[in-house]
Amino acid sequence: MVTTLDDSRGEEIITPPKGPNPFLAKYDRYIYGAVGLVGFLVLWWAIVDFGYVSDLYLSKPLDVFTAFVDGLVDGTLATEIWPSVQRALIGFVLALVSGIALGILVGSVKIFQKLTEPVLLFFRNLSLLALLPVFVVFLGIGEESKVAIVWWACFWPIFITAVGAVSSVERILLNAARTLGAGRLYIFTRVVLPAAIPGIFPGIRLAASNAFTALVAAELVGGAQGIGIYINNAALRYQTPQMYAGILALGLIGILVNAVMTGIEWRVTGWQRGLTSK
Fold this sequence. Notes:
By secondary structure, this protein is mainly α. The chain has one domain (61-266): Orthogonal Bundle (MetI-like fold), CATH 1.10.3720.10. The chain is 78% helix and 4% strand. The protein has eleven helices and two strands; from the N terminus they run E-E-H-H-H-H-H-H-H-H-H-H-H. Strands 1-2 form a two-stranded antiparallel sheet. A hairpin with a 4-residue loop joins strand 1 (2-6) and strand 2 (11-15). Helix 3 packs parallel to helix 6 (143-167). It starts with a strand and ends with a helix. The relative contact order is 0.11. InterPro entries: MetI-like, MetI-like_sf. It is a multi-pass membrane protein.
C-alpha cells in the first residue's frame, strides 16, 4: 500500500498495491518447472563435459536424446515398449480388481480387519526384491511371474487405501440412509462406494506408478523383450546412451500414466468438488 499527498487539497491518497502479473500468476508453475528442467539439463551436461563423471558411466543429455529418438525410429527401443506396457497393464488391472474388492470386504466387516491385520501388516512390509525368488520358484521366469510381481506391487496401495476409505465412511450417512428405508445393496452402491472412491484414488495412482517400478525388477529375472531387459543389455554392453534412453522411455511412460490417472480421478470425483466448492 502506497500513501501519497495531494498538494491541491492537502489530503493523503492511498493507492492500493499492484497485484501480481496475471500471466505469471497463471503460468508460474510451468515457468518455474521449465527453468528447473533447463537448469537440471545444464548441470547434467556440465558434470559430464568438464570430466567430473566419465561418459562411460553418464552420457550427455543430447547423446541420450539422440539414442532415444534413434531407438524409436529403428525399432530397437520401440519394440521393447509394448511388451512392458502389456505386462504392467495386466498386473495393474488384476491388482485394481482384487485390491478394491478385498479392500471393500475387509473395510466393511470389522471382524475381518481385526483377523487379517497382523498378516497384512507382515506382507505389505516385505521387500519386493526379497520375494522375486519366490515368484520365480512358483511361476518360473515366464510372463506369469512378471505379471505376478507387478500385481504384488500394485495390490497393496490399492487394498490399504480401499480398507481405510470404506471403514472411514461417516456413520451419519449410513444412518440417514437406513432411516429413509434404504436396503443394504442400495447403501453399499449409492452411499459407501461414492463416499469411498475419493479416498481410494491416491492408492490407485500410487499403484500405477509402482507398476513400472516393479516391472523393471520383474524383467531382470529373465525374458526376451521389455524395457528392463533393454536397459540391462545396454548396461552389459557399455552402451551408455542406449541405457539412459531406456530409462528416459520408462520415465516418460510413468509421466503419461500419471497424467491419465489424474484425468480419470478428476472426472470420477467431480461430484465431490461440486459439493465442496463455494
